[in-house]
Amino acid sequence: MIQLENVRKVYETTVSLNNLNLHIKPGEFFGLLGPNGAGKTTTIRLITALTPVTEGRIKVNGHAVHRNGTRFKADVGLVPQHINLDPELTVVENLRLHGMLYKIPLSAITGRIKELLSFIEMEEKADAPVNTLSGGMKRKVLIARALMHEPSLLLLDEPTVGLDVFSRRKVWDLVKSLNARGMTILLTTHYLEEAENLCTRIGLLKKGNLIMCGSPEELKAITGPVVVEQFQNEKTSLHFFKSQAEALEFAAGLGENFSIRQARLEDVFVKMTAERVGA
Ligand SMILES: Nc1ncnc2c1ncn2[C@@H]1O[C@H](COP(=O)(O)OP(=O)(O)O)[C@@H](O)[C@H]1O
Ligand SMILES: [Mg+2]
After folding, report:
1. How many A from CA of 143 to the centre of ligand 2?
2. C-alpha span between 45 and 9 (Å, rounded)
3. Digit-coded pLDDT (tens) for 133-167
4. Using CA positions, which residue lies closest to atom 25 of ligand 1?
5. Whose CA is nearest to atom 1 of ligand 1?
6. CA-CA distance, 123 to 2, in Å (whole number)?
7. How close is the Cα of 142 to the center of ligand 1, in Å?
8. CA nearest to 268, candidates 178, 184, 180, 202
9. 2-213 domain in CATH 3.40.50.300?
10. Distance (Å) from CA 160 to ligand 1 centroid
11. What are the E-state strand segments in the chain?
12. Is ligand 1 within 6 A of the CB of residue 189?
């Protein structure tokens, strides 16, 4: 579906991505997790050919990605990090414009818009100018727009930043239902909770390097299932163990300043990055 081979991106002096290898399979819900500046948007911009790779190769459904490639573009829908709808135009006008850019026959555009407005539950806002909508609604229109040309792959770049809890859940429901219908999803986020909730596989990006990649279960297996949290001099350190018995044996020497619990995905990231990546 998506294949990145030895992809490197350098902007002048900044190395944004360093030798990235990633293979996303059809139907997968892949989460690219990382703090600000990790290279998430760069990855999305490379996959959509908005910027060229410095080194390496990218293919979508077997078609090489490049600026003038029309084959791969038909397969890809993009929900960008920054809202780039035309604020003066209505919801329907924005969607229609996208349909025309993608050369969808006018006769089909109207039906498609109706279907998508129903999917995002915004029929009553069809003729509202975009600049009158809430942030959550704009995000939903971006999703509808990305789906206009019926792509098989949807890329979402931090789709829930700045949204309230309710709108965030709504966006999650929409992408989950698309994935359940077979659509391949690549979502970037700096919210650990979001990746954990949605994704079947997660890659952790740090300063342009993919430092680990796997299903939540595979990632948790990296550390071991039991954690001893030790509190010392106002600092918490984590120790990982294969069994409760091993953890207890270790903890016996710690006095009262510890707790024992099951490992969470966040622990894995703390261990691997020595910093918290969640919000
Ligand atoms: N157009 C650009 N010119 C120069 N540097 C850039 C450009 N875009 C991104 N970068 C740099 O590349 C790194 C990764 O950025 P980005 O992919 O936007 O990270 P993220 O989306 O994970 O926050 C950052 O250090 C950023 O400053
Ligand atoms: Mg970004």
Report:
1. 17
2. 11
3. 999 999 999 999 999 999 999 999 999 999 999 99
4. 37
5. 11
6. 33
7. 22
8. 202
9. yes
10. 19
11. 2-11, 14-24, 29-33, 55-60, 63-64, 76-79, 153-157, 184-189, 201-206, 209-214, 226-232, 235-241, 258-262
12. no
Amino acid at residue number 55: E
Q: Whose CA is nearest to atom 5 of ligand 1?
A: 11
CB 236 less than 6 A from any atom of ligand 1: no
The span from the CA of 60 to the CA of 184, in Å, is 11
The reply to whether ligand 1 has any atom less than 6 angstroms from the CB of 52 is: no
DSSP E strands in 158-277: the ranges are 184-189, 201-206, 209-214, 226-232, 235-241, 258-262
pLDDT digits (tens, 9 = 90+) for 226-250: 999 998 888 888 899 989 999 999 9
Residue 45: both structure tokens together: 């911009």
Prediction pTM value:
0.91
CA distance 247 to 90: 59
What's the gap in Å between 40 CA and the centre of ligand 1? 8
Ligand 1 close to Cβ of residue 16 (< 6 A): yes
Tokens representing 168 are 């965030």
Residue 15 φ/ψ region, left for φ over 0, alpha for ψ in the -120 to 50 degree band, beta for the rest = beta
Please tell me the total number of residues recorded for the chain in this structure: 279
The CA 89 to ligand 1 mean position distance, Å, reads 30
